[in-house]
Amino acid sequence: MKFFVDTADTDAIAELNNLGMVDGVTTNPSLIMKSGRDIKEVTKQICEMVDGPVSAETVALDAEGMIAEGRELAKIADNITIKVPLTWDGLKACKVLTGEGRMVNVTLCFSANQALLAAKAGATFISPFIGRLDDLNIDGLDLIADIREIYDNYGFETNILAASIRTANHMSECAKIGADVATAPPNVIKAMANHVLTDKGLDAFLKDWASTGQKIL
Ligand code: G3P
Fold first, then answer.
1. 163: CA distance to ligand 1 center in Å?
2. Could you tell me which residues are beta bridge partners of residue 5?
3. In this structure, which residue's CA is closest to atom 9 in ligand 1?
4. What tens digit of pLDDT does each residue of 40-75 get?
5. Ligand 1 atom closest to residue 26's alpha carbon, by position in its atom list
6. Residues noted as catalytic
7. Structural domains of the chain, count
8. Is 217 inside a domain boundary?
9. Burial of residue 185, with CB atoms counted within 10 A of its CB: 0-12 exposed, 13-18 middle, 19 or more buried
10. What's the gap in Å between 7 CA and the centre of ligand 1?
11. What is the pTM of this model?
């Protein structure tokens, strides 16, 4: 499973990228706002930092506007993926932009029907939002499994980009289901390393080592 980092915080991206943990980056209007930076400037910097796809989101509501904004964003770098919302206008924009050979990430997906439409429109990535379904007591991981089953039934090439990931458990569950990509905030990726038994075991090793009076260096 590929790891994308869901942030416009370039320092956080750099830290994980140096560990080989970054296969791509996703941003959205809220993450751009949080960065406090100009969308084109910060997106250009991110595209220069990572080799993989970098999602930058359009903000128009009509297909023509999304297409124009998408073409503008695509000028930033070759690894730009244009993000459009899962609306009929977004699907129209997806069809046109992928037809021009551009990568498109269809976002704000909350149902298998929406994901089916995105695949039919030629989306490069589909972004089903797990956490926001969980917030409504609907298991967002079930949506990932449903989309995986449907795409595999018909050989759709659209990549499942699991999004709105809130926990380390979401990451491992998405990997078990077979999501192609999971995009997560930096802290969630880091939390994947945490386990109480690892901490307890390390403490015990070091206490025993201290009792030997030995040093390695
Ligand atoms: O990429 C989509 C992601 O940023 C949304 O996450 O936690 O705001 O639902 P969240």
1. 6
2. 25, 184
3. 164
4. 999 999 999 999 999 999 999 999 999 999 999 999
5. 1
6. 83
7. 1
8. no
9. middle
10. 9
11. 0.96
